[in-house]
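Posting for a labmate who doesn't have an account.
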Amino acid sequence: MRFEEDNAARFTPQLVSRLSLSPAPRPSARQWGILVLLQAAGYFGQFDRTIFGTAVPQIQSDFGLSDAEMSYAASFVGLAAVLACAVSCLSDKFGRARVLTWTLVPYTLATACTAISQGIVTFAFFQFLAQAFITAEGIISHVMVLEEMPADSRGWAIGALNTGSACGVGLALLLFGISNGAWRLMYALSILPLLGVGYVRRALPETRRWASLKDTSLSADTHDPGGLQLPAVNIGSPGGDFLGLHHEHEERSSSSPSKCHKQLEQVKQQHVAILATTFLGSLFPSSANFNVSKHIQVVHGFGATGYAKLSFIGGFLSLSAFALAGYFGDRYGRKKLGILGILLKTLVDVAFYSVAAGAESVSLIVILFCIRVALGMALDTNFQALSGEVFPTERRTSAQGILVLIGGLGGPLGLLFSTRLVPYVGTTAAAARLLACGQLICAVILCLWLPETRGRELEEINS
């Protein structure tokens, strides 16, 4: 696949127009190519990530673990965000495309080794490594999309990337149902990405924002008076000032020190707010998210095959939520969509774990499950776009790694807190309901302290 450097026209492929339920944007050929390659790269990563969450009862049974022991193992694997943060930070120094290629072999081998683990200790260790590199890969992929796509369609592109990656989830669920929960076989099949994805990634180019930043840094190091060398093609919206350097220079020259100090405080405020939202948004719903598989399979009696069918159907019906959430965020604003999504997600989480087991509740639990999946997809898309937009290019991937680290710490802490809470509230479902209500705090932070990024260039948001 070639990535031309000319001023190619923006367009929408006919296939995308027919499949997309939302009005598709019109990126350039280069931008479409990068999006397609990143989707291919994330496909098997999501396949691997889905196995652990889906096969919790089978893994727990094979290793003879109690609920508490399984929660502790999951908490340890969640700490993989620490290593993922370190790996993703390398892309700010060495380049997005290069580091993304580095992640392929480690995560594939670690996943394959998981299939032959002899106990929960080796299982957790190999999954720790695999999840670290998969997470780093996801961070860098989303940053590349944000840095390459036009300002008027960044949210839609994040949604499209997630949609392609979610197909890996569908494949995992399909194999999970066919194999009746044979999780070792599924992990062994994860070696397949080495055959195709590695070859595909060779064609992935570096983002122009990062390349331009590095060119500027080199010019400064050699005392080049030429300053920033703008790329030949406008990455942002048509007719827009890509980096907004002219306007930024005028504003800085005419701004008073007090105004600059105020702007600096606003930038710091949005960074602190996104960190807090990430941590709390991972902590409070962690129990509700982790226990879905067991709640469906054991409490409501669906079993492994029934849960796989339900997940596959629910995920397939909800795939449009990715692109729709991105489109509506681009059009109406990420803050409005995020606040509404959090309120609905909290309500559905509480309702999902309040439904009593029985034949008469099957239809209700299926409906709530599908709505919950769709809301999770929509919130992920909206928040991934917003959290990447509020940081500058030179620190964007490092910041995303820190956010994943913060979220990775929040998730295990939420599971541990939920485990300790069960003796006081009676059941795991009751603990999940109680913790889920804390998501409302995230809606308050989003409303009061985070900026609206819709339609704005990345440089403008962080000026």
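Reply:
Got it, the structure tokens are right above this. Residues 346 and 437 are 6 Å apart (CA to CA).
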